[in-house]
Amino acid sequence: MTIGQMFEQSGMLALLGMGTVFAFLIILIVCITLVGKIIQGMGFADEEPAKPKPVKPVGNDAAVTAAITAAVTEYRATH
């Protein structure tokens, strides 16, 4: 087998592999689209999602701020 034949064979194999992956991705997209349409047709998509509970904002605690400031100052002084 010559180098030219090996390059030809490897090129065909690469194109076959990429074509297989491309075809699988197309089939996957079609299946996902069909499942989405089936779910919408059954009425599952009409339900409202549950609203998340509001989160209390975290306030700046003066003691925590002072402790962090002291720690940073101490670190800078020693390093």
Written account of the structure:
- The chain has two helices and no strands.
- Helix content is 72%, strand content 0%.
- It is mainly alpha-helical and 79 residues long.
- The chain has a domain at 11-38.
State the separation between the terminal residues, measured CA to CA: 68 Å
Number of E-state strands: 0
Sheet of most strands: none
Secondary-structure-based class equals mainly alpha
Give the assembly state of these chains: single chain
Arithmetic mean of pLDDT = 88
Annotation field: number of helices: 2
String of helices and strands? HH
The proportion of residues forming helix, as a percent range, comes to over 70%
What percent of residues are in strands?
A: under 5%
Any idea what the radius of gyration is?
31 Å
Low-pLDDT stretches: none
* Tertiary shape: flat
